[in-house]
Each structure stands twice: as structure tokens, then as C-alpha cells.
Amino acid sequence: MSLAEDPKSVKVNKTSGTGMEIEWKDGHRGSYTFPYLREACPCALCNGERVKDGRQPGEPPPPVAGQLPMFKPAVRPTEVKPVGKYAINFVWNDGHQHGIYTWSYLRQICPCPECKMKRESTDGVADDMAEHDSRKPN
Ligand SMILES: [Zn+2]
Ligand SMILES: [Zn+2]
Predict the structure, then answer these.
(1) How many Å lie between the centroid of ligand 1 and the Cα of residue 70?
(2) Cα–Cα distance, 138 to 39 (Å, whole number)
(3) Over the stretch 105-127, which tens digit does the pLDDT of each residue have?
(4) Which ligand is nearest to the CA of 47?
(5) In angstroms, what is the span from residue 55 Cα to ligand 1's centroid?
(6) Sheet holding 77-83: strands in order across?
């Protein structure tokens, strides 16, 4: 397991409902809101729904045209369970509980601007490196 996929510390603010904070062993930090994590649920069902809509993990479903947004209580986990050393599982207050969030998946979906930008540049790795080189000071 690489350092970038291994958390140094994980804090789940279950009571305050603000989300989860991960500090990775490579020094990177990510902070995930609960609605983001819920929409990024990696289970086959949620993943299938996202693929069908063409949504990225963490992206909420588009509002249905002509339908008023339904009131929904704020998403938060009622239970948080470690899964071995490699993942974490949430039991959500909407009853859903099938998502096993591996550390490598969580690192992949890190919502910070830096990681988001990396994900959105769809060019290959070679291009990324070339770009990186050109930004180096003389
Ligand atoms: Zn799910
Ligand atoms: Zn990040």
C-alpha cells in the first residue's frame, strides 16, 4: 500500500455532523462532508445509479424537472465501523449501509481543489508530467 493510500489519522465528526477528515501518510489532508460521502457510496447499487446518470462519485443526482425538491433530513451516519485495516463502513440515517469505502477509494475521490483538478484533467499521465515539468522554475 502506498503512503498516499494509507491514512495517518481519521476523524469522523459524527456528533457535530460536519463530516470526516483524513490525514494521509504522505502529508495530504482531505475533508469529506457526509452528503458527499453518501453520494460517493461505492456499493454496486449506488455505483450503478451514478453510471446511469453519468455522475462522478460525490455528485448528487440532478433535480427532477417540475418536481419540488423534497425535504430530506441532513445526511449523517448513525454508525461508523472500521473494515479491517483497509476500509471504513457507514450506516447512514436513511438506512443505507452497503458501502465499503476503502482508503484508496477515499483518496481517489478526495474533494480538495488540488485533487479535483487532477481528476478533471483527463489527459494521460505522460501529459500531466510534461505539464508539471514546464512549470518548474529555471
Ligand atoms: Zn450504496
Ligand atoms: Zn486532496
Answers:
(1) 20
(2) 43
(3) 999 999 999 999 998 886 544 44
(4) 1
(5) 14
(6) 77-83, 87-92, 100-102
**Ligand nearest 31 Cα, by number?**
2
Distance 5 CA to ligand 1 centre (A): 22
Averaged confidence pLDDT in the chain: 87
Q: How far apart are the first and last CA of the chain?
A: 34
Residue 63 DSSP symbol: P
In 3-state terms, what secondary structure has residue 122?
Answer: coil
Q: Rounded CA gap, 44 and 126, in Å? A: 32
pLDDT for 130: 45
Which amino acid is residue 74, in one-letter code?
Answer: A
**64 C-alpha to ligand 2 centroid (Å):** 31
Measured in Å, residue 37 CA sits from the centre of ligand 1 at 10
User: CB of 99 within 8 A of CB of 41?
Assistant: yes
Cα 42 to averaged position of ligand 1 atoms, centre (Å): 6
Over the stretch 43-76, which tens digit does the pLDDT of each residue have?
A: 999 999 999 999 999 999 887 777 776 677 789 9
User: DSSP letters along 19-34, please?
Assistant: EEEEEETTS-EEEE-H
